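---------- Forwarded message ----------

FYI, see the Probable arginine--tRNA ligase, mitochondrial record below. Original note from H. follows.
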Amino acid sequence: MTAKLKLYLGRKILDSLKKKTTITAVDLKPLFEVSGAKQNIQMCISLTKLENYFGISNVSEILKIEPDDIIKSIQTMQDRANRKICFDIDRSIFLKEVVENGKLPSLNEKQKKIVVEYSSPNIAKPFHVGHLRSTIIGNFIANLHAHINNTVTRLNYLGDWGTQFGLIKVGVEELKYSNEDIKQKPLQLLYESYVHANKLAASDNSITERARLEFAKLESGSPKDIEHWKTYINYTISELQFMYNRLGVQFDEYNYESMYNAKHISDVLTKLEKMKILRSTHDGKQVARVSDRDITVVKSDGTTLYLTRDIAAAIDRFKKYEFDKMYYVVENGQNDHFNSLKGILHQMDIPWADRIKHIKFGRIHGMSTRKGKVVFLKDILDETRDLMVQRQLASPTTKVPINNTDTSDILGISCVIINDLKQRRQKDYNFSWDRALQVQGDSGIKLQYTHCRLCSLEKNSGAVAATGCIPDLLPENVVTDLVKELGRFHDVICQAEEQLEACILVTYLFHLCNHINKALKLLQVKSQEAELASQRLLLFNTSRSILKQGMSILGLKPLNEM
């Protein structure tokens, strides 16, 4: 989109400095940003970033670059605390570069291997709103890296191991549920069993002991218990798959905690012992010292912990993927866990320990159905869909058949996703139905509505989009504003990737929609002279392409009509 211009400016800077360096114009390309007040079009580069690259702060040589057909003038500017060099770019050249290249992907010349672990619900427990945030944010991060041409592996690490399975087994026995009962309503009945056993355990220590013994039998490989455990997993996986399909989320691999049970991670435990990272406590536990704290790695009864299994999983994944980065998308409350994981990997002298990163996020408060009930995410999504059906029934502009609940479902899920991703990732926030589903403000509906308007224009305008841009036919100020915003798309992608913050992209798309809708009011396509109509349609088609790319990165399914 603006890649050629950025490469051109990068080469100009390198030539002006006349300094031997291994840095190339490709290295400088991500440092440029599109800006410019009013009708000026500028491409600017931070002096701080240039100094970091070249170790110089003297810009006099760069300022001597001669204006040409592309560069109209060069100046230094102060933006808050940041000094930068700004190149004034010829409007016609900028318009052609942006409008003609809207469908080109944002390629990353230095391809990386990225692993993203996200969602990771527990088998036989409700898919709750914490897992929803992990799923939405993780999907965004995976989509973002795929967009910039990195090799991405999407992992769902299912919690299918631990004392919880002992409690579920006890609960099933106490409630006398048969396999047939559970098969009919797996998540609901297994969760009821878990809750029931927990209530009993609160006043009866023997229940806790029964649950512990049940899990110990599972870890030791008892065939009968393994069979029960596999049944629970098989019953719940299909429900999870349905939920992911509905959210538009896919995974490359499903991993399971059980892959790293005591029998399968003996080599890791042996290495920890040989390196004297583990020591035994008076009560029989094996602990590691991390940040002046004792961290339990093996319990006194010999069973493993989540941390133990995560150590083994990280080692296993690096052998398999040789990743440049592995992201764990898990809530803020697990910060100590991941510090312990990284700390133990460092103690094991693992050279890639710093390649793992905990992507933290805050909690959602108050997310329940309008009746105040929340257990399963399905209830939230169903209510969102039903509310969208009601709104479409009441709207005179609805284009799709009213009985098409798929469209309503996509609209509702778009609202839930955007309401989440427009928040700063690490902040807690309060969920509001009115804010999430607002039609007039910044919401998922706004993005879908704008995309549908652009699709309708392409379908019904009677014009054929031009293959090349003629800037003289697009002289309006509203065009300059829109094209500058389109030209910022790759800058925004770079910022979002650097900070792993979806809200940067969400905010950009809201601004882009404002510019698009303003241009749609002022630039008629239908009934215009053919060449003018084709130029305007090309501009709007490029706008739709950028909007669609951004929506897809966020995890939305762009609608063509609603």
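H. also flagged this: The radius of gyration is 28 Å.
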